[in-house]
Amino acid sequence: MDPKYKETIIVNAGESFKIDADVYGKPLPTIHWLKGDHELANTAHLEIKSTNFATSLSVKEAIRVDSGHYVLLAKNVAGEKTASVHVKVLDRPGPPEGPVDITGVTAEKCVLAWKPPLQDGGSNISHYIVERRETSRLVWTVVDSNVQTLSCKVTKLLEGNEYVFRIMAVNKYGVGEPLESEPVIAKNPFVVPLPPNAPEVSAITKDSMIVVWERPASDGGSEILGYVLEKRDKEGIRWTRCNKRLVSELRYRVTGLIENHDYEYRVSAENAAGLSEPSLPSTYYKACDPIYKPGPPNNPKAIDVTRSSVFLSWGKPIYDGGSEIQGYIVEKCDVSVGDWTICTPPTGIKKTNMEVENVLEKHEYKFRICAVNKAGVGEHADVPGTVIVEEKLEAPDLDLDLDLRKIVNVRAGGSLRLFVPIRGRPTPEVKWGKMDGEIREAAIIDITSSFTSLVLDNVNRFDTGKYTLTLENSSGIKSAFVSVRVLDTPSPPVNLKIKEITKDSVSLSWEPPLLDGGAKIKNYIVEKREATRKAYAAVATNCHKTSWKLPRISMDPKYKDTIVVNAGEMFKLEADVHGKPLPTIKWFKGDKELEETFTVTKLKENNEYNFRICAINSEGVGEPATIPGTVIAADKIEPPEIELDADLRKVVTVRASGTLRLFVTIKGRPEPEVKWEKAEGTISDRAQIEVTSSYTMLVIDNVNRFDSGRYNLTLENNSGKKSAFVNVRVLDSPSAPVNLTIREVKRDSVALAWEPPLIDGGAKITNYIIEKRESTRKAYATVTNNCTKNTFKIDQLQEGCIYYFRVLAANEYGVGLPAETAEPVKVSEPPYPPGKVTLVDVTRNTATITWEKPESDGGSKITGYIVEMQTKGSEKWSTCTQVKTLEATITGLSKGEEYTFRVIAVNEKGKSDPRQLGVPVVAKDIEIQPSAELLFNTFSVKAGDELKIDVPIRGRPPPTASWRKDGQTLKETTRVNVQTSKTSTLLTIKEASKEDVGNYELCISNSAGSTTFSITVIVLDRPGPPCDVHIDSVSADNVTLSWKAPGYDGGCHISNYIKTDETDWSIAIQNLRGTEYTVIGLTSGSEYVFRVRSINKVGASDPSDVSEPQVAKEREEEPAFDIDSEMRKTLIVKAGESFTMTVPFRGKPVPNVMWNKPETDLRTRASIDSSDYCTSLTIEKATRNDSGKYALTLQNVLSTATLTLVVKVLDSPGPPSNIAVKDVTKESAVLSWDVPENDGGAPVKNYYIEKREASKKAWVTITNNCHRLSYKVTSLQEGAVYYFRVSGENEFGIGVPTETKEGVKITGLSQQ
């Protein structure tokens, strides 16, 4: 076959492909073309051509199913041969593999799932298209045209409709064939719930009722979402819904009912499937309040008294009893008589005030009032105190109407009417006035005993103000005022003046009119007139001051940021202003108050002008204010001025890399020359300066820390010179610290010091970062990044190593530039002082001293040592020698002179501190107390071997040595001898034995003193025999022995013992480490004797003395209990817990064990476990019945032993005993009983008593708090048969009840 067929043949759908092959074989082979397991044959779509030596397969207009493995099979009798070709047809994919799995079907959604197509058309499936169709229609609707997974959730289905779904795979060649699902109906898997039971109603009022109901018996398989409550008026036929939203609770308060109407209710439950059928309707309920007698009238009082009558007033009762108040009854009582009489008709009066007449002057009366409704006469309310009938004086008073307490607004030209009720006895004198002027003569004032009025027609703005009213009589004075605002055009503006004049403009300023005409000034009209003319021309008709308003908290948030405006543009600030009384409004720029100005432009140079201003409010145009004289339009010369904004007066802060903008408003005529400078140097080349006639601006982009500083601005013209400055702080990381110095160098540390950076970057330096670098490396390593001081000690440096160091400052904006040490630093220091200095030898003219190396060489090699000496009485130290070793001999000393010596170590960094010899040295031949270098205090030798103890000694003069053993002088023999020289003493012991064991003392002495040393000698030999072999116990087949360890253990630990017995002395045990053993396997009735040998690592000892003869037989022992006093105490157990009583015992032969408890079979209630030495009883989940005494009996052939154990179970009490019923009447009976036999371990504190009618099964509690042994049961139904039961209660709960065995019939005859 052509080699190309070894690779996959790729064909586009619709194209044709052909596979050729040459075939050889003898005899001629048969040729077969296969695809999969099927042999191919000629069709209109596929053609196979074969000859004796060739074959071909052609496929026309290939489609996706033509993809696959094609196999050419040639075979003859000699065998067969195959060749395969793989063909891939690039086409749309096949249908997804089914079936379509439909799950989660509800009334409106479902979930589809499928498998990928078996044929992907030679390209990966990019996505799927899902469509749906109702079975009643032919049109397919797209559900989702880009499904990336093998599942899809379909929503928005119509309940009850039947749907078919199809899925099509999509690859880059197109949309494949669809896979259709089986039809499915969109419906919920659950149903609506059952209807609830009929609702009930409680808490009825005249306009509301509370309706309650129970849950339905079934929720239909879906959780109930809520309930719908409906009502129906008895007079209507329609059910109306009570709740707009679903009610989630089982109660609902229905409101808006009509009083005295009857209503019935029904309720429906709703779940995901919908609303249930409504419940059965309730009975009818009437909407009405319950009616009771009214409460007492409220706040009764006597409001006025004359010589013949009393005026009373009162309020309605707080509680009307649920019925309208029909009237009031007033009663009076003459205190001198004491009788109450009605002052009103029997049905009462409707009013809540009354004049009571027919009273006697100078008499004292009491009054009371009662309210009457449908239910009757309510509780009376007494008028406080008593009332004396007499004429009384009353200070003047007035009642300002609510409208008069506010500002009274009247339009200009209208009428002002002020009506004020007054009172007072005698009738007060009335005076009207005006606080800021006189009342016009046209005012009409009317005065009576009960009121006064003021009427003013055709009012104008001058009638605005506060009108005062004063009442005065012999009892006092009363005053009040009424504020009146006449809505009129405003008065002229005030303080009109010229602010600025140029050749073509004039700036005017003014203040608001004193009288705003009762309305807010809306705007102003500005007019001008040339001096040569008589008519004014309007310059502006809409000039207003809304450009300047006092800000409030709710001001537009944009004003929180800086408002940037280009020169020449207009800006506007707005705010809402509130306050009572109306606040005054002032605007400030810095500390300077802004005035309202208006600039008139387009004037002719050197012309004279007149100006006037009119204010306008809602009522019209007010009177004009005119500037006296004329104004000439001409420029004027002004010295330069700089107006620094308030922000520029503070420090201007800018973030690093940000932009600095300094905008300054300037003035001056002629236009001044502008010059910007920087105080600490030159301004950056990045700076851009802009200058106009009204402002100048300095802009620096991409600022850094070096742009911080003071910027000076200078203006100059021929009228003068003006300067100002702005401080700028750039918020950047700081510059490098300064003056970095090395303060101290030690062998493993370096101390650095520095000063803060000159530029802190506009923020406080928070910390410093310290870094180090070895001279052999290029990279710095951080030592610390949290140094807060200006010094730091760097520890743990490598001794002798050379380092560079650098310090960087950090603030909140980052880490600044580094400051680095200029020269490398070697980490070393002068060495530590030498170690201990020791005097080795001294003569009349020399002294020899030694010393130890210093603890540290300071990081540099020690080059030598300097030895200095000081003569007694002198303060001068002189160098006596320099050496490189740790020893020096000082010569040339004077005999008898006292010297002090000290040693100094030296390295390349310098000298160490000196180390002084501890004591002065006198130059003389000295005596040294003898000493010895004893390496060990204990020496051991094997028996028969030789022991040598050689001890080096020293002293001046040479010491003598003597040896002692166990306190006695050591005797020298041919086996034991001592040899002593000037420098050592040697003790030799030949053929060591047990006799050589002991404590030896070596005493060395000379004229300077003596020293004694202790030495222990151990000879390793076999141990001595054990002693005191004793027989402790005997049985038929074993004997227990004990003995004491030997007095001599052979110089090493006794490892074990060997026991032998009988006349043949057989070994009973060979490796026993203790001093006790039980010999087993003896013959019962035989007599034995025993002996013991000790063994150590050297060998076995001689045997011990034999024991007393002993016959092997059983020993009998009476049974007994091995318990302590704690076991004999009462065992307390909580109910429900388990307990176990374990009792050890003894006895031979082993006794029988028996547990017993009265009236209890312990074989079934308890678990008993016994051995030869112990018995235990376990009870699970104890109850009160497990309380009591438990008897344990042990018995063998010798005796019997008994033990009683007491258990108390803390439980609720048992049933009371002897319950009886007596003294039965037609509605009561008396129960009596005795205390429970078992109180559960705690006293019974009270009893529960219950009853049950014979016809019912449920028990009803009568009382749960009876503390006696009898109780009278009342409220029984005559003729009924009752059962009673009583339960005790203690601190652990309620116990078991006891019940009357027979029912008790309740009759009038007493029963027992």
Broad shape: extended
The computed structural class is mainly beta
Number of E-type strands: 109
Helix content: under 10%
Number of helices: 3
Low-confidence stretches: 545-553
What does this structure look like?
The chain is mainly β and 1312 residues long. Strands 69, 70, 72, 73, 74 and 75 form a six-stranded antiparallel beta sheet that branches. Strands 103, 104, 106, 107, 108 and 109 form a six-stranded antiparallel beta sheet that branches. The longest helix is centred in the N-terminal third of the chain and has 4 residues, at 402-405. It is extended. The model is unreliable at 545-553 (pLDDT under 50). One of its GO terms (cellular component) is M band. InterPro entries: FN3_dom, FN3_sf, Ig-like_dom, Ig-like_dom_sf, Ig-like_fold, Ig_I-set, Ig_sub, Ig_sub2.
Write the layout of secondary structure elements.
Layout: E1 9-12, E2 17-22, E3 30-35, E4 38-39, E5 46-50, E6 54-59, E7 68-76, E8 79-90, E9 96-103, E10 110-117, E11 127-134, E12 141-147, E13 151-154, E14 162-171, E15 174-180, E16 184-185, E17 200-202, E18 209-212, E19 226-233, E20 240-241, E21 251-254, E22 262-271, E23 274-275, E24 285-286, E25 298-305, E26 310-315, E27 327-334, E28 340-342, E29 353-356, E30 364-373, E31 376-382, E32 387-388, E33 394-398, H1 402-405, E34 408-411, E35 416-425, E36 429-434, E37 444-447, E38 451-456, E39 465-473, E40 476-487, E41 494-501, E42 506-511, E43 523-530, E44 537-543, E45 587-589, E46 592-594, E47 597-600, E48 608-617, E49 620-626, E50 631-632, E51 638-643, H2 646-649, E52 652-655, E53 660-669, E54 673-678, E55 687-691, E56 695-700, E57 709-717, E58 720-731, E59 738-745, E60 750-755, E61 767-774, E62 781-787, E63 791-794, E64 802-811, E65 814-820, E66 825-826, E67 837-842, E68 847-851, E69 864-871, E70 878-883, E71 887-890, E72 898-907, E73 910-911, E74 915-916, E75 921-922, E76 928-932, E77 938-942, E78 947-956, ...
Parallel strand pairs: 1-8, 34-40, 52-58, 77-84, 94-100
Antiparallel strand pairs: 2-6, 3-4, 3-7, 5-6, 7-8, 9-10, 10-13, 11-12, 11-14, 14-15, 14-16, 17-18, 18-21, 19-20, 19-22, 22-23, 22-24, 25-26, 26-29, 27-28, 27-30, 30-31, 30-32, 33-35, 35-38, 36-39, 37-38, 39-40, 41-42, 42-47, 43-44, 43-48, 45-46, 48-49, 48-50, 51-53, 53-56, 54-57, 55-56, 57-58, ...
